[in-house]
């Protein structure tokens, strides 16, 4: 018979393990970016720094919450979320929002450079709207593109689409998993298996581009 801790502290511990690995990958990606792209625009470098800072805050408070549960409250099952959980969730939502806006701005820049939006405008406005809805929902919880005629432009747009599909798939699966586990297994921490890595997936996807 499974231990009653499997669905709470067990799920929490596994989530922390996965998230820490993804954070380490992101930190390495950031290091490679700054050493390999010294001439990039300040706006891009600032976005990378912002996302890295937010993800550092998120993982730090996740560890703080874990210390509270596993050390300060040792032997006492603590299933209620504490202030550190609220801060780490807020940092994760802000990080995901920054990445979403970054990708939307890249697509926007490419399409504007061609002098027209076309159907891509609908996708851009949808991205901005959903990003805004997500960040509002996240804060409340805690208190795409036409091809051009130039081959190089087509390649850049193709890469953005390819990345958006992969990024969207990973984060969509993560969000879906979070919702399903939260609804299907209440009073457990299984939903953290999808929630904890989600913002790291956003960071890894952005830095991979």
Task: Tell me about this structure.
It is a single chain. With 209 residues, the protein is mostly helical. It has one domain. The protein has 6 helices and no strands. Helix 3 runs antiparallel to helix 4 and helix 3 packs parallel to helix 6. The longest helix has 34 residues. About 2% of the residues have low confidence.
Write a concise synopsis of the structure shown.
This is DUF6534 domain-containing protein. This protein has 209 residues and is mostly helical.
Q: Main sheet?
A: none
Q: Structural class of the helix and strand makeup?
A: mainly alpha
Give the integer mean of the pLDDT values.
74
How many domains would you count in the coordinates?
Answer: 1
- How many strands in all? 0
Q: What's the order of the H and E elements?
A: HHHHHH
How many DSSP H or I helices?
6
Shape: globular
| Helix content, binned percent | over 70%
For the CA atoms, what is the radius of gyration? Answer: 19 Å
Keywords:
single chain; about 210 residues; mainly alpha; 6 helices
